[in-house]
Q: What sequence folds into this?
């Protein structure tokens, strides 16, 4: 009886050991895993402009992207005399799908047929305003001056500090509302006789920057 009980106790001890060993091995099992992912898609906005030099201004255009060769402002200034004043409109807008922005008018690059007293480009003076129409009346009252609020400037001057020329955003299908400018160019009274028969060409650059 004693031997049988002793054997039974040994079996129980072995089973207890097995349970302990089994419990201990379960701690080393790998944890369950699962994963989640998040993805984002990105795209760049579009900012493009086009311009219109029709005179008188025609909202229907033609509108062109004059990035490589300039649009020709229509001044009707082939035979200016001292005191002559000529005007030309320019309009710029964003293309369909474009975000809003602003545009800055720089000083023109100028080429003249003469030098010194016969340099017509150096003798000419100009002013620019933002206006829906373009003529002498555009510079009366309280115009939105871009160049020359305190008097006509030489062609070495660009847009005045602090001036902001906004460009409206376009829709997906339609261009933005145009921003219109009016240029006034004068050959001052008392211009040198050496300027007779001389020519000059001024090319202005409008630099547009997106707002977003």
A:
């Amino acid at each position: 009886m004693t031997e049988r009980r002793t054997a039974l106790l040994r079996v129980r001890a072995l089973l207890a050991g097995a349970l302990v060993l089994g419990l201990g091995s379960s701690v080393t099992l790998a944890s369950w895993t699962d994963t989640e992912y998040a993805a984002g898609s990105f795209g760049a906005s579009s900012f493009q402009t086009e311009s219109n030099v029709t005179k008188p201004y025609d909202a229907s255009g033609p509108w062109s992207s004059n990035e490589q060769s300039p649009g020709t402002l229509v001044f009707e200034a082939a035979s200016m005399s001292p005191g002559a004043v000529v005007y030309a409109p320019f309009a710029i807008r964003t293309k369909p799908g474009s975000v809003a922005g602003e545009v800055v008018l720089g000083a023109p690059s100028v080429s003249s047929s003469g030098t010194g007293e016969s340099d017509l480009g150096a003798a000419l003076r100009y002013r620019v305003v933002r206006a829906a129409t373009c003529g002498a009346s555009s510079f009366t009252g309280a115009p939105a001056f871009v160049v020359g609020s305190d008097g006509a400037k030489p062609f070495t001057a660009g847009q005045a500090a602090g001036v902001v020329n906004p460009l409206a955003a376009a829709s997906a299908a339609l261009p933005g509302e145009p921003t219109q400018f009016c240029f006034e160019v004068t050959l001052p009274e008392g211009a040198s006789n050496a300027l007779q028969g001389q020519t000059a060409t001024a090319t202005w650059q409008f630099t547009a920057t997106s707002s977003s």
